[in-house]
Known about the structure:
The structure is a homodimer of 311-residue chains. By secondary structure, chain A is of the alpha+beta class. Chain A folds into two domains: 7-123, 2-Layer Sandwich (D-amino Acid Aminotransferase, Chain A, domain 1), CATH 3.30.470; 132-288, Alpha-Beta Barrel (D-amino Acid Aminotransferase, Chain A, domain 2). Helix content of chain A is 29%, strand content 29%. Chain A is built from ten helices and 17 strands. In chain A, a hairpin with a 2-residue loop joins strand 15 (255-262) and strand 16 (265-266). Chain A starts with 6 loop residues before the first strand and ends in a 12-residue tail after the last helix. Chains A and B meet through strand 3, helix 1, helix 4, strand 7 and helix 6 of A and strand 3, helix 1, helix 4, strand 7 and helix 6 of B. Strand 3 of chain A pairs antiparallel with strand 3 of chain B.
Amino acid sequence: MSESKGIAYIQGRYMPVDEATIPLLDPAFTKSDVVFDVVSAWDGAFFKLAEHLARFRRSCEYIRVRPPCSDDEMCRIMAECATRSGFDHSCVYILCTRGSYAGGAATGDPRKSENKFIAYAVPYYWIVPKERLNSGAHLWIADTRRAPDAAINQRVKNFNRMDLTRAQFEALDAGADAPVLLSTDGFITEGPGFNVWIIQDGKVRTPGDNLLEGITRQCVFELCAEAGLQAEAADLTAADLQNADEVFISSTGGGVIAVTLVNDKPIGNGAPGITTGKISDNYWKKRAEGWEATPLADLLEPEMPQAAGAD
Amino acid sequence: MSESKGIAYIQGRYMPVDEATIPLLDPAFTKSDVVFDVVSAWDGAFFKLAEHLARFRRSCEYIRVRPPCSDDEMCRIMAECATRSGFDHSCVYILCTRGSYAGGAATGDPRKSENKFIAYAVPYYWIVPKERLNSGAHLWIADTRRAPDAAINQRVKNFNRMDLTRAQFEALDAGADAPVLLSTDGFITEGPGFNVWIIQDGKVRTPGDNLLEGITRQCVFELCAEAGLQAEAADLTAADLQNADEVFISSTGGGVIAVTLVNDKPIGNGAPGITTGKISDNYWKKRAEGWEATPLADLLEPEMPQAAGAD
């Protein structure tokens, strides 16, 4: 038996994620007409599940799709994907696609569609190479700008990532780990899959516009409040980032990760920041203590006698 | 036998397009990391094939993918899709996807990927309801803006269409046929799948920035030159559109189509424009005469004795 790459729930059944497909003509592909969210499952429990679900529902509402299942059903499916995958730590994706509609994607009416819910679990990942967790990540402020909310509302978690991918090429070509994108107005927004933070004169700040409001970003605000640190959303420039005392990123994929180099400029003394380290330690300490943890076992269908014809 | 919905070429073989799929985890889906083009095949011949291929190659270069086949091979595959589909008139899509890469879409290096070529033929379609070809289309200037080139280069034909889809909802909700999107700077850009034109005081104008430079748009420039009409790219506002003598759209999906209503404002006397009609008539007249037509039969593989083990 080959190693599990994860389990997907699609078209009403569970299957290995690397066998799951979507139709070539699905507008979810040909128009990127889909929203998603990603929840981490760690040692048998989801983290901040309710917040992720609420954000997913908001994304769905924004593009006017409705997952054909209740929150309880979604949670059960997510728990099944995570449990059946067999990973100690996983990332569970939930998607709602527009689905196909009469007349086809080019000329049909997308309001008359049958929306689909898809879920899948994959191994937990760190948004930057794992060896950077100790040494600090190298970010690159890209020339490519983040698409503005007036066009693509970035509070809605979506797959329209051509800007992020182009910026990622810039970062990788420069030898950096990941890009940070400026808005068309010239302010720091976010990177692919993470929010960006600076600490300057003891104050913690993160951009507030034209970005996904990360669940881990919300965690950092909570952690700062508990630690008595002043934290706020603010417009930040590339210079603010490069001249900060400390820089870090936050993501479901890795929690709180120090940044030690932005383009060619070392941050502070070039080592991961002390305050960043405290925030990161507190993040993982609280998670180990069961912070907003929802055991997968509580979400799974109770074992029942097998009904005739059940799938 | 059910009616053909079209034939796709994917993973090296031909199949009914409604059986073709892409992997759920393919970055072409989860990051919309793909470019495409669409060529019309009409009565057994492609139209402006070389121009479409050249634009497709430019799109590929921009996102740094390379179709794993020569132009000749692409043309043969496209002709096979069109011919095997059995339609008198079809639209043939060609796609190049990044393909998957080691480490996965979230953390891998997209520069180390195996790019894939996909093609498929579907029945020819008109970008607005066919009954509008005589009465004129109703456009809607949407609140949603077109993502700017600094984020997503719209000269590169791509599937990052969340802005277009949101604008389409606005148009359909308003009872219109299709939206037109403004740039973040407030100038007319394009609609989903078409360019926009106005005629004012005998001068023909179309936007020049933040849009796909349509092959049919290029046709209109050619047709205007032949007819002695002055035509140029220019910044156009919503007011320019609504106050024009004539408005029309151009697309591979329908050629040149008159617009008679923009939001709640009738254009001219509310009937399709005279000059628009002449341009449209000339477009179809020249096509019937074989304008830049490449017979599918010239592109197909010559019949050969079946080799052992051939697919």
